[in-house]
Amino acid sequence: MVRQGDNSAERPVSKMPALRALARVGLKGLLGAGLMAALAACGAVVPTTGGPSVSRPPVRPGPSSTAAPTSPNAAALGVKAGRAVSALPMSTADAAGALASFRESCPRLISRTDGSGLTSPDDWRQACTAAANWGPGSPAAFFVSYFETAQVGDGNAYATGYYEPEIAGSRSPLPGYAAPVYAMPADLVRARPGDAAPLKDGRMPLGRYGAGGAFTPYYDRAQIDAGALAGQGLEIAWAADPVEFFFLQVQGSGRLVAPDGTVTRIGYAGQNGLPYTGIGGVMRERGLIGSGPGQYSGSMQGIMQYLRERPAEGRALMEQNRSWVFFKILNGDGPLGALNVPVRSGNSVAADPRFVPLGAPVWLDLDRREANGMWIAQDTGGAIKGANRFDTFWGAGAQARTTAGGMSGRGSALIFVPKGTLARLGVR
User: Is the separation of the CB atoms in 270 and 185 below 8 Å?
Assistant: First the structure.
């Protein structure tokens, strides 16, 4: 999964040529929230969450977030004016893809509260109205006409990648397809006030009520693997390989390919409320990752090799991650991100909504050429936290898996906001 990439570029290079090359080998669209982040959070760079969140690679720690605990959002952390949009090396193809994704985000942009504190729904109306009627002539001119850029905090960015896994699976039980894909169970609920301690964000925790009426944590991965949910009619599909399905859960969405070639897309429906543990980090702590005898690489491939060569130990290792993701069948266009609109290969990025308005354009200037240029923040991820932390979406298929799994880029980020936003915020 891990790819070193070309870090020699001295200026931003559009990601679109790389995407056109990917398209030639059959790159498809993706869903779900950040793999490299999830596995990188595990300590291994692996591609494949959370809610909705998707695939990751070996671990290379990213720079520490500029978002201190005392900075709840971008407005509190501080912003300053970035480069003029007209000064950015935006290609026509890059701008066209971003404009299409921006249009799809507009209904949510003008109706939802912006947790970053930078904008209000009304701020986006003029740009969204223009986007709906903008012709094919000059998509870059659209962004020049309606936006200015803001640097959040120090602007130092770290980006990983995610994709939509494609694994063997069937909607009906078949020999060799034994890993159940479960829908959300009805008994997975939030505690009533007074029945449990609130979470740090003030919400009540997820769990279930037992026969005696006491609230308790929900079944963990080991219990579900042992059959805690079997026989309840929750199975919506069965996967052939429990290891591949484990990593699909990390991604938060994917495609199941049946023996007859039928493809079923599944998406994140919920999670059991228990914390995510990255198994790459566990392997590292146990001395299983390295270049010595008996050690494995920290890539997704290395982790999978360990899980398959040592099935008993591998199952126990996967069960160290007590989190379990439930799924639903997806129909229609593309995997859906946190805005409930399709995420698009090479155009959609996951971000922390406390520091980026979801739906806003983002400019990345990284040491990974293929990820440079314009993205639209349309998703979130369990490991995508803090200012200037991003997870780039690369679609589905083998090339997407390789690109996402190897993505680890550092550089700078600018957030596009409607013209006039900086003046209103008192930024000069």
Answer: no
Is 375 in a helix, a strand, or coil?
strand
Q: Quick one: angle between helices 92-109 and 16-24, nearest 10?
A: 90
Query: Which residues have C-beta within 8 Å of that of residue 329, sequence separation ≥ 6?
Result: 236, 237, 264, 265, 266
Pairing type for strands 263-271 and 253-257 reads: antiparallel
Amino acid sitting at position 145: S
pLDDT at 71: 73
Amino acid at 17: P
Level-2 CATH architecture, domain 164-330:
Beta Barrel (2.40)
Locus of tokens 């859906």: 336
Residue 381 in this model has a pLDDT that exceeds 90: no
CB count in 10 Å sphere of residue 398: 12
Closest CA to 189 of 203, 178, 171: 203
End-to-end CA distance of the chain, in Å? 43
146 in Cβ contact with 127 (< 8 Å): yes
Q: Report the alpha-carbon distance of residue 158 to residue 196 in Å, rounded.
A: 36
Question: CATH 2.40.240.50 spans which residues of the chain?
Answer: 164-330
State the CB neighbour count (10 A cutoff) for residue 246: 24
Statement: the pTM of the whole predicted model exceeds 0.85: no
Phi and psi angles of residue 152, each rounded to the nearest 5 degrees, phi first: -95, 125
Contact 256, 264 (CB under 8 A): yes
